[in-house]
Amino acid sequence: MNDELVLYGNPRSRAQMVRFMLEELGVPYRLAVVDFEKGENRQADYLAINPMGKVPAIVHRGVTVTETGAIIAYLADAFPEKGLAPAIDDPRRGTWLRWLFFAAGAFEPALLDTMLKRPEAPRSTAGYGSYADVLGALDTMLDPGPWILGDRFSAADVYVGAELAWASMFGAPGIADHPRIAAYVERIRDRPAYRKTTGA
Ligand SMILES: N[C@@H](CCC(=O)N[C@@H](CS)C(=O)NCC(=O)O)C(=O)O
């Protein structure tokens, strides 16, 4: 079996979140640049990897994984000795999965709708309720902190933290009203793996 880990992406994409995860893990990988300007993400060879024509994607041990949150969770499980995923029988696994899925299924759509000034759907229909609800929930996620699993940094922090850092960098509203979230973003930005990824 080919054990090589290949990340498809480019620096102007969510592939940076996966790079953050790979740097936290400290495992070797090959970056295969997919150039949007050249339309490489819409060419047949890349569509065979991700029919959505989107990055990031990884190929590891002959399996393709797409979707940033799934890739980050997969990698945490693929390298259990790195300690970024609670074991399958650890009750904290529930908290870990909860916020990983919340980031993909609630926070990201709420954030994009807000940044693009799209009208919000009725609160009871929108899966994320409202943007304000989402920020309020993320605030409770940090109880007690400093990380999602308390003292233990995990892959959930990589994904949620990278999304929050992105939101903060692009001036998403409301974050400054949540000092715990703002402080969490600073902790994420201080991580050597994050700095290495962003060149900060
Ligand atoms: N749901 C996907 C979204 C991936 C996505 O939208 N990627 C963007 C870059 S950040 C992309 O590949 N855009 C190129 C295109 O759609 O043509 C994930 O979370 O990974």
Automatic annotation (TrEMBL):
Query: By its UniProt entry, which Gene3D superfamilies does this protein fall under?
Result: 1.20.1050.10, Glutaredoxin
For this protein, the record's PANTHER family field holds: GLUTATHIONE S-TRANSFERASE FAMILY PROTEIN, GLUTATHIONE S-TRANSFERASE-RELATED
Tell me the ranges covered by the GST N-terminal domain, including all copies. 2-83
What name goes with this protein?
Answer: Glutathione S-transferase, N-terminal domain
Give start and end of each GST C-terminal domain.
89-200
Q: What is the lineage of its organism?
A: Bacteria, Pseudomonadati, Pseudomonadota, Alphaproteobacteria, Sphingomonadales
Question: Which organism is this protein's natural source?
Answer: Rhizorhabdus wittichii (strain DSM 6014 / CCUG 31198 / JCM 15750 / NBRC 105917 / EY 4224 / RW1)
